[in-house]
Amino acid sequence: MAGNTFGEILKVMTFGESHGAGIGCVIDGVPPGLTLTAEDIQKDLDRRKPGQSEVTTPRKESDTAEILSGILDGKTTGAPIAILIRNQDQRSKDYNELKDIFRPGHADFAFLAKFGIRDHKGGGRSSGRETAARVAAGALAKKILAAQGIHIAAYTRSIAGIEARTVDLSVIEKNIVRAPDLEAARLMTERIAQAREEGDSVGGVVEALVTGCPAGLGDPVFGKLEAKLSSAVMSIGAVKGVEFGSGFRAATMPGSQHNDQVHVKDGRPVTKHNFAGGISGGITNGEDIVFRLAVKPTSSIAKKQQAMTAEGGTADLEIKGRHDPCLCPRIVPVVEAMTALVLADCLLLQKTIK
Amino acid sequence: MAGNTFGEILKVMTFGESHGAGIGCVIDGVPPGLTLTAEDIQKDLDRRKPGQSEVTTPRKESDTAEILSGILDGKTTGAPIAILIRNQDQRSKDYNELKDIFRPGHADFAFLAKFGIRDHKGGGRSSGRETAARVAAGALAKKILAAQGIHIAAYTRSIAGIEARTVDLSVIEKNIVRAPDLEAARLMTERIAQAREEGDSVGGVVEALVTGCPAGLGDPVFGKLEAKLSSAVMSIGAVKGVEFGSGFRAATMPGSQHNDQVHVKDGRPVTKHNFAGGISGGITNGEDIVFRLAVKPTSSIAKKQQAMTAEGGTADLEIKGRHDPCLCPRIVPVVEAMTALVLADCLLLQKTIK
Amino acid sequence: MAGNTFGEILKVMTFGESHGAGIGCVIDGVPPGLTLTAEDIQKDLDRRKPGQSEVTTPRKESDTAEILSGILDGKTTGAPIAILIRNQDQRSKDYNELKDIFRPGHADFAFLAKFGIRDHKGGGRSSGRETAARVAAGALAKKILAAQGIHIAAYTRSIAGIEARTVDLSVIEKNIVRAPDLEAARLMTERIAQAREEGDSVGGVVEALVTGCPAGLGDPVFGKLEAKLSSAVMSIGAVKGVEFGSGFRAATMPGSQHNDQVHVKDGRPVTKHNFAGGISGGITNGEDIVFRLAVKPTSSIAKKQQAMTAEGGTADLEIKGRHDPCLCPRIVPVVEAMTALVLADCLLLQKTIK
Amino acid sequence: MAGNTFGEILKVMTFGESHGAGIGCVIDGVPPGLTLTAEDIQKDLDRRKPGQSEVTTPRKESDTAEILSGILDGKTTGAPIAILIRNQDQRSKDYNELKDIFRPGHADFAFLAKFGIRDHKGGGRSSGRETAARVAAGALAKKILAAQGIHIAAYTRSIAGIEARTVDLSVIEKNIVRAPDLEAARLMTERIAQAREEGDSVGGVVEALVTGCPAGLGDPVFGKLEAKLSSAVMSIGAVKGVEFGSGFRAATMPGSQHNDQVHVKDGRPVTKHNFAGGISGGITNGEDIVFRLAVKPTSSIAKKQQAMTAEGGTADLEIKGRHDPCLCPRIVPVVEAMTALVLADCLLLQKTIK
After folding, report:
1. Distance CA D56, CA D47 (A)
2. Within an 8 Å CB–CB cutoff, is residue B80 touching chain C?
3. Measured between CB atoms, which of C235, C253, C277 is closest to D222?
């Protein structure tokens, strides 16, 4: 309800705006006995925070997490974990001139239509800043998964049409666009720099890869894992599409090709191309889970645009705030977090069945 | 939980397998005073039922809906509506030879891993037959929406790479592939016939278009309308991807192009290309909602395949049952139903806000 | 939402009215591999059905349960179990004269205020008949519990002030009022007969006793087991109060007495009087769970009463239908069912923690 | 799930322990445009806080609420409201000697059985301190209700058998036991003082009265208002029973008396004694809502008791902390808060129906 809660057993509620005291989350249903420190959370927050490199917004937020509850002697107790990240670098004046204009590509008009109130100071809950709370919660979920040998890696698969040709997970954190291919990363970085110089922005594709996931997670019918993961990642602002395994290519393939070549390995059927993306009938089949997201170019650009005004006319708009010329590098940890929340929840749910 | 429930205010629980007494659903949260007859439901069930044309499986099911509860003098009372569709044309023997083999592209192995039990008679809850219950529930949701002037049309956008060039909603029900372009429909029909003759199957793309939707539906953060709709349609078997508005094309566009040209119409900002797909920041903006689904080719094909056996080896498999050579024509009403369930739920939820 | 769904992991949705096709339920989240037959369900339905003895309404309903789904070879598969009980002995004409009058003690006026529609044919969802669906679902829950050695017995503790002096579980089904004391049962039966002759009705107290429950079920804060059980049993029509262990007597006791004498048995603290009713801080402590319900006298009585009419005046009312002179004997299996649903749900939830 | 979330539309998640950084809550589903200040919340927190009078624990906590999110220019925006109350007066050493003993009447053993971890520093989530977060959330709910003319008053109806003879709402906050009868309040205060001197504690009955509630709130079947309110108030530690209107007295009354005398007022049926407690068939009927709670005597007493040790033996225990000799005065605002959360939720839910 009202959109700020996620999950069934591992349940997260997030809160906060960029103009207020801070943002944060409360996570219920955390298994007791799990080691958790503020550092576990900080590591991922640092990968998401603004100002981390030349391809992100220069806005500065240390995004320091404080764990308010649920920990005793460094371990979870089964009580809810509340995490608070205080705001620091607020420049509400950047937004004053946006008070009476609906920014193109943004939620301004839709929020007003919904709530009858407009939080023009940074977009309120439509601000990308809310994803920091997801990353904090996701860091905890990752710990639950890691204890079972499940690992998640997301990375920038393409930017503005420049594709990563290889997937080398070891280089992702060694380049500022978080691509799994250093040569492609170099080209992507250049393309982003060019967009920034032009007062423009670029989009891209982010891919997620989950290894070590046992067969049996996810539910039939409405609870299919693709449905849960899609809901999770399509809830990230700027994501316009999601596809699993073969994805949209499946639409042009015959069944005899898509069913793929099957052999048996470790007591389970393994396919040559993993077109299923690790999920069959909504339930993990033991292969790697693979999916991709379309990320649109940042809506806040410096270039002059036409926009509707509160009075119902149009006006020229040049957005002066500090914005990311490409969202992919900072969306990567958010995708990992949402994926982790879904899978940890499924892992706990599966305990009720078998 | 356990995957068989959908929705928040308008809540649906579905049940049933193709081998048992029947399938059906219970719908809670239905507004009182709505006119509803079995015919309202039957109309959409007939669009989904097997055996309706030469491009669908010849399996025969009349799929007759019986409304068990919630109606008084032809109107809803606010009580739950239960709908039962009895099974008729069961040929469990078709499935006997599948008892000890995991069909490629199917959920057989994953279900066994999850439940420790394998319902080999038609796949249990992974059977496409469960979608009849969704269509029944969706027919009710459509009535709620129609009363507010909201209309949903889904159609086959492409099959095996053959694209509809125009979108003429008036011809969708006038061709057996449910394409919005009669010339493309002719080519698609031929392509499906060819696949059937080859003992093979083909995939395609289904598009959904919602008109008349007011601005303000959907929620921020996790409850974004794209998240809810993605969850809804990615829960339909065989769907491998979903994209809204510009979709995956957004990944290659600059922001200045994607933000689109804005003008004002009826007091709201209107764009030239509707790249947002009618949704901004997760909330409807008053433009048409548009999204597309990738539908994989049917997994059950007559062509000989290699498959894993229950004993852990592999064996040749030729599936003898009666199957759809292309799923798109019958998925169309299911996509409409899931879309209707989401939007009717959002419409009711919005009443709690404004 | 909308009141017809219960439970978190083991989730039940019920439907149906006494005037329609029938009533029933769908149960999701059922563990796979459980043996379940229609007879398992019928046994408890027979204990609830009308016309079973001289102290119940003479209305006749065979209340035959049909399992529509979720069973393969006599065992649950993990798919939802749908159960349908067709209506038989409908005498809607009994209700025609009630169309324009609000019966005292009934939900007539409140339902109209809520829904704007009045289902005068038997009260719609406020009919006691809906509890048959609960009993069906509860029979399944009892099987889950029995497999863990957990057993539930409810019984009539008092009727119209006549108290059972002993609690002998073995005699409960050997007397028609379901009291655990045969001598008290005889007096209670006489008192009910007297009420019926007078065109009146009587109330009573029903007690529930759960044995074999392990420590650790229930949750802290809002999910306390008393909260869950109270919600469960207070949702049964005619129940006006609930108390656990010492109950309302606790209000007059000093802490030194209420804390009770503690000794150690089988590795856990055991008290002399079990004032806690088996629950400490909302979580089972390993002792028997004990609680009591106040059951009001049946509202439908033959005696002449004043009632408000639809036009806003008052009129004399003599209710002619066939009604129970005391609800306790038939509420007993409903209390067991609701208790079973809560505990089975808690048992499954606890698997996600430890 | 996991017990820390409450409500359907107006959804609250609470967190925190007495030994950690603080306690608090996040409230989702708050209607936009509502005036809310920290003072609104503080007023009720002050009524709950320790150290407020001679009949409460001398433990000192200022319980100052900080609103972290969801407010813009003094009004709610529809975004979640997070409230944080930092801990101050922690004396964890008081609890060190309790590390290896299970306190009688407390949740110590049950929590260990559930979580496998024992939070001995103040009881973790079983601490009464968690109710401060409920009171904060309830203060917001009260504002939603007050805007519709709905008002809630709870008060101490009896302590250790000393009954309030009259119900004068205007004197409740004028006496430290919060009784609606000043003469009874004097006797109750003396009785509590006596218990404290004896190193003992006393129980009582708290009553709640809701005025101005429209007919139509609550749902049929499982969502009956008595079920929701019972769940709400039985989740408060130390509450052992709840009864509505006639309550347990109904068990001894004949139907002809319990149905009560009906007359018509303002277009609705009004009864002489309101035995229904304002709720018929689970739905408000327009009369005052009235219910009572049994509050057990405080479990933490100074008197010497026998208790089980972690090693499985027994030992003498004298609890040295600072505790309330009677919980009723401080439970009063918690009962109001939980009642407000339920009714505000029902009010929002009802908008989806009519």
Report:
1. 11
2. yes
3. C235
**Residue D45, H or E segment:** helix D38-48
CA nearest to B217, candidates B267, B286, B283, B287? B283
- Alpha carbons B62 and B46: distance in angstroms, whole number: 8
pLDDT tens, position by position, D156-167: 999 999 999 999
pLDDT, one tens digit per residue, over A220-233 is 999 999 999 999 99
**Residues B32, D352: Cα–Cα separation, whole Å:** 10
Q: Do residues C287 and C274 make contact, with C-beta atoms less than 8 angstroms apart?
A: yes
D268, D215 Cβ separation under 8 angstroms? yes
Q: Which residue has the tokens 């019986």?
A: B66
Query: Distance between CA C66 and CA A84 in Å, rounded?
Result: 53
Query: Does any CB of chain D come closer than 8 Å to the CB of residue A110?
Result: no
pLDDT at B122 over 90: no
- Calculate the average pLDDT of chain A: 94
Which residues have C-beta within 8 Å of that of residue A205, sequence separation ≥ 6? A156, A157, A158, A292, A293, A294, A295, A328, B248, B251
Task: Tell me, yes or no, if C28 comes closer than 8 A to chain B by beta carbon.
Answer: yes
Decide if C342 contacts C204 (C-beta within 8 A). no
Chain B CB contacts of A294 under 8 Å are 243, 247-251
Axis-axis angle for helices D328-350, D131-146 (nearest 10)? 50
User: Is the C-alpha dihedral spanning D247, D253, D254, D259 positive or negative?
Assistant: negative
Residues paired with residue C75 on neighbouring β-strands, in sequence order: C35, C72
Whether residue D2 and residue C110 make contact (CB cut-off 8 A), yes or no, is: no
Task: Rounding to the nearest 10 degrees, give the CA dihedral for residues D162, D166, D171, D173.
Answer: 50
Alpha carbon distance B272, B258 (integer Å)? 10
d(CA B149, CA C106): 38
End-to-end C-alpha distance for chain A, whole angstroms? 30
Spatial distance between the Cα atoms of B223 and C187, rounded to a whole number of angstroms? 59
Architecture of domain A2-350: 4-Layer Sandwich (3.60)
B256 confidence band (pLDDT: 50, 70, 90): very high
Burial class (CB in 10 A: 0-12, 13-18, 19+), A320: middle
In eight-state DSSP terms, residue A202 is B
Which token pair is B202?
């083909």
Which helix (H) or strand (E) segment is D280 a member of? strand D279-280
Distance from CA of D353 to the nearest CA of B (A): 5
SS3 C70: coil
Nearest Cα neighbor of B228 from B47, B350, B84, B57 is B350
List of residues 6+ apart from B248 with CB closer than 8 A:
A205, A240, A241, A243, A248, A294
Provide the residue count of chain A: 354
pTM (2 decimals)? 0.97
Q: Strands A151-159 and A162-163: what pairing?
A: antiparallel
Q: Is the Cβ–Cβ distance between A251 and B197 less than 8 Å?
A: no
